[in-house]
Design brief:
Cytochrome C Oxidase, Chain G; 0% strand; elongated
Length: 108
């Protein structure tokens, strides 16, 4: 047990004494490198991806899928405690179907 304590103490002392200034400068240079990479590559890359998604979305608006009344979906055993009891809490008339079908047809 004493040997284990002595070994760990020696390892701790040797790691603390090995060029403390070099690790600080290496840390700052690494941080500077990642900062430059973020500004030069990440921000423009995300901007290009956002522009691409926006342009593709404008060219082809999403189509509303045909309603299929599957027996295992949209099962209402009791009414929801809000509204008329048939709409979910975050209901969207364009994308969420009721048990009878969509409320509104999407205009394209």
């Amino acid at each position: 047990l004493k040997l284990l304590g002595r070994i760990s103490k020696n390892d701790l002392n040797s790691s603390m004494n090995s060029a403390p200034g070099a690790s600080v400068t290496a840390c700052f240079s690494t941080a500077r490198t990642w900062k430059i990479l973020t500004i030069v590559l990440a921000f423009p890359g995300v901007s290009v991806c956002m522009a691409n998604a926006y342009v593709k979305g404008q060219e082809h608006p999403p189509e509303q899928p045909d309603f299929v009344a599957y027996s295992h979906l949209r099962i209402r055993t009791k009414k929801f405690p809000w509204g008329d009891g048939n709409h979910s809490l975050f209901h969207n008339a364009h994308t969420n179907a009721l048990p009878e079908g969509y409320e509104k047809e999407r205009c394209g």
